[in-house]
Write a structure and sequence with these properties.
The chain is of the alpha/beta class and 160 residues long. The protein has five helices and eight strands; from the N terminus they run βαββββαβββααα. The mean pLDDT is 96.
Length: 160
């Protein structure tokens, strides 16, 4: 991968498993290469999978099997814009159903601890609306949700 910039994500020996899951779950995602350690290192041995090059929704990433020293946090997340409830449900359920955890306001974590915001476009458009009433109603509705329910957001936008 000759990308000028890519996101480096730290894993504890399971970068290839994570990259493979992302590639089968998200469109425009693929595992591009696996590189093996040329020598022993603090959390592994020569020949272990050291890095995995992959894309998530077209974003170049590298998974580093660096060991248990560092963990993912909500300070970093992928925000995925969805077009409808079917896509929202599919992505949310794939992440949560594969050992992940639900959170609030469209956020969830995958089984590797990486945070995801599954954000329907209608919600993002509403909470960034120039109409303060629309923005507040959509925001208030979102604050009560885990996975985003588009019909509830649309009702809030309409003032129902």
């Amino acid at each position: 991968m000759n990308d000028k910039n890519k996101i480096c994500l730290w894993y504890n020996g399971d970068a290839l498993e994570a990259a493979t899951f992302y590639a089968k779950t998200f469109p425009d995602s693929e595992v591009k290469a696996v590189h093996y350690a040329p020598g022993d290192y603090s959390s592994g041995k020569q020949g272990d999978e050291l890095t995995v090059e992959f894309t998530v929704l077209g974003i170049p990433c590298i998974g580093l099997n660096g060991g248990s020293m560092f963990k993912h946090s909500e300070a970093f997340s992928f925000q995925v814009s969805t077009d409808d409830q079917v896509e929202t449900d599919r992505l949310w359920n794939a992440i949560v159903g594969n050992g992940g955890q639900e959170s609030a306001c469209g956020w969830c974590k995958d089984k590797w601890g990486l945070s995801w915001q599954i954000s329907p476009r209608v919600l993002v458009d509403a909470v960034t609306s120039k109409d303060p009433g629309v923005a507040k109603r959509a925001f208030d509705a979102m604050m009560t949700m885990g996975k985003i329910d588009i019909a509830t957001i649309e009702a809030a936008i309409a003032g129902r």
